[in-house]
Write a structure and sequence with these properties.
The chain has about 600 residues and is of the alpha+beta class. The protein is built from 22 helices and 19 strands. About 30% of the residues are buried.
Amino acid sequence: MTKLTVEKANTLYAPFTMKYLLRLLCAIAITTFALASCKKGPSTVGDSDKKEVASSKFAQNYPDFNPEVLNDLLKSQTINDSLLQPFYASEEYKPVWVHDTLDTKSLYEFFEILEDVGAHGLPSHMFSYAHIKSVTDSVDSGLYQNPDTLYSKICFIEEASTKAALQYITGMKYGFLNPRSLYAKDYDIVISKPDSAFYKDMYNSIKEDALAAIISSQPTDSVYLNLQKEYRLFAKADTSAYKKITAGNATYKLGDRNKHISEIAERLIYTGEYAPDSLSADTLHSRLNDKLLAAINTFRKRNSYPEEKEVGKTTIDALNRPVSYYRNKIRANMERYRWQQPKARHKKHIEVNVAPAMLVATQADSQPLMMRVCVGTKTNKTPLLQSNISYLNLNPVWNIPKSIAQNEVAVLQKKDSTYMRRRNMRLYKGGKEVDASTINWSTVNPSSFSYTIRQDPGYGNSLGLIKFMFKNSHSVYLHDTPSKSAFNRKNRAVSHGCVRVQKPFDLAFFCVSPSSDLYKDQLLYTANQNPVTEKGKKMMKENSLKKIADIINLAEDNKISLSIDYYTAYMYPNDDLLYYADDIYGYDDIILQALDTQQKVQNKEDK
């Protein structure tokens, strides 16, 4: 094309090109505006089209706050946090406590819940709520005008509050401590642990309504609620009226008068067991009469002590315990009642509480069977476990454990060569019986004693006339005992670890559910006991009363669950009172120390 032709063409198409460019620029402008209009909303709270957001105190203090920046920061902060990352990742790291603005109403209501953790026996500053609240107050007052500082502080509030909520709910549902790590080998009870389903439900409930999820996690068991009620009463107690009783080693009997009896009466008025007649208050305060003795025995009963007809040092020492003694006991047991035990209880259930050394057997539509027991010493603790009673053994043989054979029997036999014979004990080596009189006991080293010892059935047998067997890894069982006097003692932690029962045949009848009185008589007769019915007595005289087998297997449809546990603050069936027991194994202290240690660790992590 010639130069002239090109110039002519440019002149011809120039108007068209300008029109095209103008249209193109207009289209770009419209598209840009449309894209901007498609955004979900303003990037800052000050430009929000929500009136409640734009006019909020938070928007006035921080009009340039951008929620998207917070989301990005929250993601970077929690992406490697094993607790928080699963929670936030499912919702693209959207905050729970900070939405368009800082949700101070929900936060402050949450802080009130955390401030009241003492009502659950937890350390008052657990979860470091005071620090979270302090930062929230500062943000709410407009203190942080530096954007980087502001986002950092709000991110801390979000993370710390969510972490506290997760830990609070999990702890209330499953306990804040692991009993297996506290009691080691002496704890063989299966405890529920939070699983993936629990975490999924918890995450969803917190996102839906955090406060409702937190409140609904609190235990509602009747015993737990009674512990809480008592704990609050002790928290309000006027300790200035709690004066020490200075009676020394004195013992007072019914009818005695003494100034220290007045101190005892005043203490029982304070604790609630005694309400004297105001018309004769002076007399009642200075003399140990029937009403005051009844109040003393009520106090003893509530503290798991035997009732007596006098009052001495043991009871007075218990009366002198400070309010903190009971508050700490309740704190420890609140944690115990938060531990979930998934093993189902059968219609028949036997509960052994080691701390007060008591047994309660329950079944539907029947009064509970209650009795004292003897439990293991502090050095031979009764293990805590769950199982099912499998069979009863009448006239048991005692296969003496190696430790007892070495540390006790061999030592005593060495001192007295008639010891084993007088106790119907037999000696075995390689399964064959050995005559104990053929051994030169003066040369025996008890620590290397390798013989097996068995004790024949009978009244002198250490297992008594009956034992109750159940599967466990500790070789323990419930059994009768010839040492009946131990049941009258305050301290019944006297066994090698097994549980001795006060009313063995009542417990046997509970287990087997005898279909007739004749079967009861047969069971007693088999264990060399006298029948209780006239018919049974007559049959025994006529030699027509038949014995049953020594092994009584329980039918599959007669399952009996067994729990051997440890509570120092507890309740009995059909009883509204709260009872206390001495911490014979020191387990309360272990729990309290662990709770306090957890608090210190938590506080350290949050700083």
